[in-house]
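Something for you to look into today, if you have time. What I am after is a single protein written out in full by you. I want to see for myself how the chain folds. Could you add the entry underneath, on a fresh line?
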Amino acid sequence: MQGLVLQLSRGLLLVLLWLFIYLTLRALKTDVFGNVGMRSGGRAERRGGVFGRGAKAIRHLVVTQGALAGTRITLSEQPVLLGRADSCTLVIDDDYASNQHARLSPHGPDWFLEDLGSTNGTYLDRTRVTTPVKVAAGTPIRIGKTVIELRA
């Protein structure tokens, strides 16, 4: 009987050890490469007409300051990932930007900005973003030395 309990204990310990290793490697992969499911093309034209009542729909993301100044991305109904990683919609080559720094997500006619746990923070018109926040057209979004705006 003692031999059976000892063997079951060893087996359980081995399973727990492998589970720990798996979860550790998964966390490292997510930290280094980010969530692969967040990729988005972000370059297709928005289908349909103007959203809202009399207001023009936000259709473009424009970089106004930084190394990419003048860059213009046509938005689709997919989220826009901002950061240094090659998988991002807008790749920001800035020492103050994280691999996956922030995300802009459409919800109907509105766009929301979310910081993805960046080290140096994401700012919406001088206010640090801590929770998802609605972004009005023309409001500056700052990530490191890069400033972007959403425009109609």
About this structure: The two ends are 75 Å apart (CA to CA). Residues 2-33 form the longest helix (32 residues). Residues 44 and 144 are 27 Å apart (CA to CA). The helical segments are 2-33.
